[in-house]
Each structure stands twice: as structure tokens, then as C-alpha cells.
């Protein structure tokens, strides 16, 4: 199961998308360096926004992950192994991120 993206990765994903539109021929190495400098210079409020989104992704992922609970022993001596699963949500990280970031707004 892939790891939930951290705040910088989310920031990088959004900024790289925008920079790629303005500088389509720029190398990946230069883009990464540019985004890294932008991140270092961001205000705590902006960085906190991405930290919050990363946390929401982690919570969403944990809610939709199968996880075992058990074994559980009952008074009658039987032991059962439970698996909890939330089947109501089919969203993945990319769908969730796209619902937060309106990438189409940047292409108009």
C-alpha cells in the first residue's frame, strides 16, 4: 500500500503542474530546485495548509483501509478474528487531492 503524500509532496505536485505550464521545456531537475526554494520561502500559513491536507489524506486512507482487530475472546470461550472494512468510500488519494486542488482553474 503506497504511503500517504506529505505536505511537501502535495505542494510540489501543485506547483510543478503550474510551473510546467509556464516553462514546458524546463528540466525536471530545475523544476524540483525551483519548487524546493519556493517551499522554503512559504509562510507558515501556506505550509500549514498542506500539512492539513496531508493529515486529511492520512485519515481518509486509514478510514478506507482494511485492518484486523482481534483475535477477540468471548465469555463462552470462543475466539473470533474480526476484519473491519469501510466499503462506503471508493476514493483514492488522487481523487481526494483533485477535489481539493482545482487544476482546471489553472488551465483556463
Automatic annotation (TrEMBL):
Species of the source: Gigaspora margarita
InterPro entries, alphabetized: HMG_box_dom (IPR009071), HMG_box_dom_sf (IPR036910)
Classification lineage: Eukaryota, Fungi, Fungi incertae sedis, Mucoromycota, Glomeromycotina
Record protein name field: Mating-type protein Mat a-1
One Pfam family it belongs to: HMG_box
Domain HMG box: start-end pairs: 2-52
Amino acid at each position: 500500500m503506497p504511503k500517504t503524500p506529505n505536505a511537501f509532496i502535495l505542494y510540489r505536485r501543485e506547483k510543478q503542474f503550474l510551473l510546467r505550464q509556464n516553462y514546458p521545456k524546463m528540466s525536471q531537475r530545475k523544476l524540483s530546485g525551483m519548487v524546493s526554494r519556493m517551499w522554503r520561502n512559504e509562510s507558515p500559513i501556506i505550509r500549514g495548509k498542506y500539512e492539513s491536507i496531508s493529515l486529511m489524506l492520512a485519515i481518509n486512507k486509514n478510514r478506507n483501509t482494511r485492518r484486523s482487530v482481534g483475535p477477540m475472546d468471548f465469555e463462552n470461550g470462543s475466539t473470533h478474528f474480526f476484519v473491519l472494512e469501510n466499503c462506503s468510500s471508493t476514493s483514492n488519494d488522487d481523487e481526494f487531492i483533485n477535489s481539493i486542488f482545482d487544476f482546471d482553474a489553472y488551465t483556463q
